[in-house]
Amino acid sequence: MSELPEEMATPRTWKRPPLISDPRQRWALYIGVIAYAIWAFLSIEVDVQRLVEGADWARQFFAGLVQPDFVSRADEIWYGFLESLTMTAVATAIGVALAVPIGLGAASNLAIRPVYLTCRAILALSRAFHEVILAILFVAMFGFGPFAGLVTLVVATIGFLGKLIAEDIEAIDWETVEAVESTGASWLQKVAYGVAPQVMPRFIGLSLYRLDINFRESAIIGIVGAGGIGATLTTAVERYDFETVSAILILIIGTVYAFEYISSAIRKRFI
Amino acid sequence: MLEITDLTKRYPDGFEALKSVELTLPQGQLAALIGPSGAGKSTLIRCVNRLVEPTEGSVKLDGTEVTDLGRSALRGARRDMAMIFQSYALVERLSVMENVLSGRLGYVGFFNSLLRRFPSQDIQRAYKLLEQVGLEGLHDRRADELSGGQQQRVGIARALMQEPKLLLVDEPTASLDPRTAHQVMGLLADLCDEHDLAAIINIHDVPLAKEYTDRILGLNAGQLVFDGPPAELTDEVLPDIYGGEDWSAHGEQSADEEDDDDDEDVRSSGQFLAEEVL
């Protein structure tokens, strides 16, 4: 096996094959990307005069931010905050409950073809628009207020969770499912014993993560009229009441932190 | 008890994993199914309980044609055919007890199984089986905390929990060390004997197959090319099953090894095949 002549003929260098094998194409792509980046950078117009004028506004804004005022608009802040929390909790609960069956249906290894295609279509549709666009549409449909926000978050949650759960299910250890199936288990038992335990930790983690996304989104969609703390925030900004803005921002940050803490505590128990 | 006639599995791309396999297995018989990787061994046992749908042919279990059964009748038939897997295929995040009890899923309704409400005689049976396979006291451990050999024992207990007539065993020892492999094969043989079960065991380890089974089936490229008692599986017929020509050269060596076997039967078995593959 290790005779000398063979040893001599064995190459001593090796390079990983490049992703694009044709060097002309490869270099053309590199140069193209760099040229575009330079052109894009040069095309940004910076208006120095506006920066100077804006500096005064920025100073006022930051002055307000370092003096948060929770008191003068306490009622409005509290009302908006509670509305956001309620919207978040209800929307996440409904969204998760709906995402489970749709996610199961969208897993190609579990669902028959027509169900799979239908569920994938539902998921694609619910992820087609950003939350803000959805909120604008639902506000137009249902009027201003938290109900439009609730529907927005439910739709977004289904799209997010359903897709990720479906992909998780498609990646599970199939032999375990076969083992459950070979005992004579029904389809539901197969899901409960073969599939659910395998995806449960990630499912719980994703649901909690979505809870925290939904709270942040509830602040954003409030800006387009879908209720919640976002509505209060917009009003405060329009009044140039930067002290209240600061208070609201601190409240949002604090809540997201609290969610993060709670969700990691819960996740630890389910690994 | 199990009658397989003219069983063919053809995939949509035209590949024939099984070609008109004929096989009859009487009650209580342990048959080893050997053959090179890709010969169709896993496909064959999966066609029996229809985890893989056969394309043509018939599979009869105690006179019942399995290939024609509808969904719920198939569930009934599957209760009689328990399966054991190479990678154990336990539900890793569930406890040992839950895994063993899952062998009763074909008998228990969905909500009762979801709430883990199993009949008391099932629970008693599960405890007894755990004792029989040597896992007494480990019922509340999570399945993935156990060693490979222990996990395979849980797999065996789960299979017996079904009260099957037939065991379909897919590479039970391939992930185990030689000593544990012997223990697991010995356990399987004892339990089949005790419960009068027939079994088809896919296995790569020829000496292990010869030692523990009543009958050897050789599969090559989807065709049964050997069917006989272990004594007839000589080094002259191994090339028919595995291909290649240099088995006879190895014949002397393996005969030498067999002399040592009496002293330390644990060590030798895996090696001689492993050397051959290299």
Pattern of helices and strands of chain B: EEEHEEHEHHHHEHEHEEHHH
* Rounded radius of gyration of chain A (Å): 27 Å
Largest sheet of chain B: 6 strands, mixed
**Class inferred from helices and paired strands of chain B:** alpha/beta
- The overall pLDDT average of chain B reads 85
> How many strands of chain A?
0
- Helical stretch count of chain B? 11
Q: Would you mind describing this structure in some detail?
A:
- Chain A has 271 residues and is mainly alpha-helical.
- In chain A, 77% of the residues lie in helices and 0% in strands.
- Chain A contains 11 helices and no strands.
- Chain A has helices at residues 4-9, 23-42, 48-65, 74-105, 113-127, 131-142, 146-170, 174-181, 187-221, 229-238, 242-268.
- In chain A, helix 4 (74-105) packs antiparallel against helix 9 (187-221).
- Chain A starts with a helix and ends with a helix.
- Chain B has 278 residues and is α/β, with parallel strands linked by helices.
- In chain B, 41% of the residues lie in helices and 21% in strands.
- Chain B has 11 helices and 10 strands.
- In chain B, helix 5 (120-132) packs across helix 6 (148-161), helix 6 packs parallel to helix 7 (178-195) and helix 10 (247-261) runs antiparallel to helix 11 (265-277).
- The model of chain B is unreliable at 251-278 (pLDDT under 50).
